Amino acid sequence: xxxxxxxxxxxxxxxxxxxxxxxxxxxxxxxxxxxxxxxxxxxxxxxxxxxxxxxxxxxxxxxxxxxxxxxxxxxxxxxxxxxxxxxxxxxxxxxxxxxxxxxxxxxxxxxxxxxxxxxxxxxxxxxxxxxxxxxxxxxxx
Length: 141
Hints:
With 141 residues, the protein is α/β, with parallel strands linked by helices. It has a single domain, classed as Lumazine/riboflavin synthase (Rossmann fold, 3-Layer(aba) Sandwich), CATH 3.40.50. The chain is built from 5 helices and 4 strands; from the N terminus they run βαβαβαβαα. The protein has a 4-stranded parallel β-sheet, with helices on both faces.
C-alpha cells in the first residue's frame, strides 16, 4: 500500500480543514495509507517534505496564501512553489500542490468549499493528481 503524507498548513483553519477532508477522503477511497502533519504556514511545507522524503511514496501540500498589501505574498508563493518543484524533481517523488493562492478570503473560501457530488476543491484536485501519478505508471505503446 502506497503511503502519502498530507502537509496541512493550517494558518487559515476553516479553509485548510476542508482541503484536508477532501484530499484524505479521495486518497483513502483509492486505497492509499494517509498521514497528516499540521504546520503553521505554507513556508514550512518544503522543510517538512524534505525531512520525510524517504518515508513516503508521495506528498500532498495543502494550505492557503491570501494577498495582502505588501509583496510578501509573491515572495512566499514563489519560494514555496519552486522549493516543492525542486524537491519533487531532485528526489523523484510526486508532490502535488493544493495550496490556494487568492486575492481575498472569499476567493479562498470558494476554492476550499467542502466537496459535494458535483464540486471538487483544491484538496481533492491535489489528491486526484497524486493518484494519477502513482497509479498510472508508464505504458507500452
